[in-house]
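Need a sequence for this fold. Nothing fancy.
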């Protein structure tokens, strides 16, 4: 299991947005592409502010994109 109990469906939502690139999402959220890569890989959980920015950029609700992983 990855290093954080917060899972996400960022990759799936990007694909649903016409194949939005990691760079396009990063630009929309004011972060680097490396940040998006790390989030998608589950290496860390985003701040609440960044989670909202990502969800908004993807046209989704925060709970549609992020979820708590059951142990």
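Here you go.
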């Amino acid at each position: 299991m990855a290093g954080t109990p917060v899972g996400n469906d960022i990759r799936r939502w990007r694909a649903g947005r016409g194949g939005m690139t990691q760079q396009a999402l990063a630009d929309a959220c004011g972060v680097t592409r490396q940040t998006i890569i790390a989030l998608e890989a589950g290496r860390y959980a985003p701040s609440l502010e960044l989670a909202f920015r990502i969800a908004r950029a993807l046209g989704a609700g925060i709970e549609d994109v992020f979820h708590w992983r059951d142990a």
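For context: Helices lie at 10-16, 22-29, 33-40, 48-58, 62-65.
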